[in-house]
Amino acid sequence: MAFSSRLLSKSKQLCGNGVILQQERLIPVRHFAKEANRPVLKGDEMLKNIFLDVKKKFETALGILRKEKITIDPNDPAAVSQYANVMKTIREKADLFSESQRIQHTIKTRTQDIPDARTYLLTLKEIRIRRGLTDELGAEAMMMDALEKVEKELKKPLLRNDKKGMALLLAEFDKVNQKLGIRKEDLPKYEEQLELKKAKAQLEELEKEALEAMETQKKREEFKDEAMVDVKSLDIRNFI
């Protein structure tokens, strides 16, 4: 295919930048060459294990992508669903976080040392914004109103270790959820919707990268008279 070299380069970039490992931080690892009479340090062994683990996850993901047909069409619900299913398979086989699990992990690590409820809620908002999520229901404002109500009743800022105060706040949150029609039993559905949203965004990025690659290639003299192919007709398996 005329644009194969450029698309191959782009596809590899995407594999490393989040489509496969989805924002996993790749830790720089030194070259582990054998040296005579050099003792193996604990830190070296740890870094080697990290490198091998990341390598295994990456190879697992590529192995799945070489088998699964992906249609680069973010406007087709069926294509988005198929892509989401492929990403789910990759996460399960490579033992990677889903988007909801990643958010939960971020919340846990970012908020574990926060003492008060207000800072906790503000941190949740910051995490949401950084993850590119929208508060379409206005839940954050309603949660803040609930906190204001509880703190007014307590006549002091609410600390997270205040069991009585937190019980009052959680009761108010239950009212908010009820008003918004949010039920615990629907959480799997919300997680699925989040994964579909993420899949659509990644397909949009793939589409953008593929078009840019072909536009760049078309500027070259030997390809200037060649028609661009439809992105939806591309088979990613040919460029991995």
TrEMBL record:
<keyword id="KW-0175">Coiled coil</keyword>
<dbReference type="Pfam" id="PF15704">
    <property type="entry name" value="Mt_ATP_synt"/>
</dbReference>
<dbReference type="GO" id="GO:0009555">
    <property type="term" value="P:pollen development"/>
</dbReference>
<protein>
    <recommendedName>
        <fullName>ATP synthase 24 kDa subunit, mitochondrial</fullName>
    </recommendedName>
</protein>
<dbReference type="InterPro" id="IPR031432">
    <property type="entry name" value="MGP1"/>
</dbReference>
<feature type="coiled-coil region">
    <location>
        <begin position="187"/>
        <end position="226"/>
    </location>
</feature>
